[in-house]
Design a protein that fits this description.
Length: about 290
């Protein structure tokens, strides 16, 4: 009996020693992943104070928690959210995504906005992959793409666990192609995410470097004036007659210089070759 008591005391002492958290490792882990103190300790204990293994443990734990939460909230309406855009440095490829959530509070959350922006950046790989310069891309195709160490789908699932709301990648559009300069703009938010967004693609065989500012300005114009057609020809093919206010080239350019059509004519003279709108698309959150 005495021997059994001694063994129990020894085992408790061993468990206490084994479960001791290294303070330096704890500090480092929380710098890399700012989880709660208790969660960080649990990760380190499970990983024998190995920070890299603890990070992996936290990622798997967050994904598992997100999957459980996703199963509970999957039927909730995600009508709030953010429209995010990304344009590469050369302005030859652009992406726009709408990431939905349940409340405006989460829509303004830095974690949510950052996720939307990161997904938009990943989507740029699809620009120019369609027969159309501006195209809608299947959500499933983007969801399967890598985002960091996981997929876009896994990142959304993890966000559900962190934010406590249903998060849905609702739609994706890209712009890009040979001889194209793209512009993007979002309104009603901060940085590259907001409530309304637009992509515009300009095409010219001339000096395209002079069109970068115009492409972005036209994207801002599209956000504000919501045209439905780029040209009169497109409008006529759709059966349009009478009022041409929904035609982009007929609208008075928001930055001055006449109508959009007249501004494009001036740009053509400056570049030495015809400049035309190859396509545009506009997203409104929750529409």
């Amino acid at each position: 009996m005495v021997l059994a008591r001694v063994c129990r005391v020894a085992l408790r002492g061993y468990a206490t020693k084994a479960a001791k958290v290294d303070i330096a490792a704890l500090k480092r882990l929380r710098q890399l992943n700012p989880v709660s103190m208790s969660r960080a300790k649990e990760a380190l204990i499970s990983s024998e104070n190995d920070v890299e293994r603890a990070l992996t443990w936290l990622e798997r734990d967050a994904l598992a928690a997100g999957a459980q939460k996703a199963a509970k909230v999957k039927d909730r309406v995600a009508a709030e959210g953010a429209v995010a855009v990304y344009v590469n440095d050369a302005q030859t490829a652009a992406t726009m995504v709408e990431l939905g959530c349940e409340t405006d509070f989460v829509a303004r959350n830095a974690t949510f906005v950052e996720l939307a922006s990161r997904i938009a950046r990943v989507g740029a790989a699809f620009a120019g992959s369609s027969d159309s310069v501006v195209a809608n891309i299947g959500v499933d195709a983007l969801a399967a793409r890598a985002l960091g160490a996981h997929s876009v789908s896994d990142a959304v699932t993890e966000a559900i666990g962190r934010l406590g709301e249903n998060v849905v990648l609702r739609r994706v559009a890209t712009a890009g192609g040979p001889g194209v300069v793209v512009g993007a703009y979002v309104h009603g938010g901060s940085g590259a995410a907001g409530r309304i967004g637009a992509l515009v693609a300009l095409h010219s065989d001339g000096e395209n470097s002079t069109l970068t500012q115009l492409a972005r300005q036209l994207a801002q114009h599209v956000v504000g004036f919501a045209p439905r057609y780029a040209t009169h020809a497109e409008w006529e093919r759709a059966g349009g007659s009478g009022d041409t206010s929904a035609v982009l080239e007929s609208q008075v350019f928001v930055f001055g210089g006449g109508t959009v059509g007249e501004v494009l004519q001036k740009a053509s003279q400056a570049t030495g070759a015809p400049v035309h709108v190859a396509g545009f698309i506009r997203f409104v959150r929750g529409e």
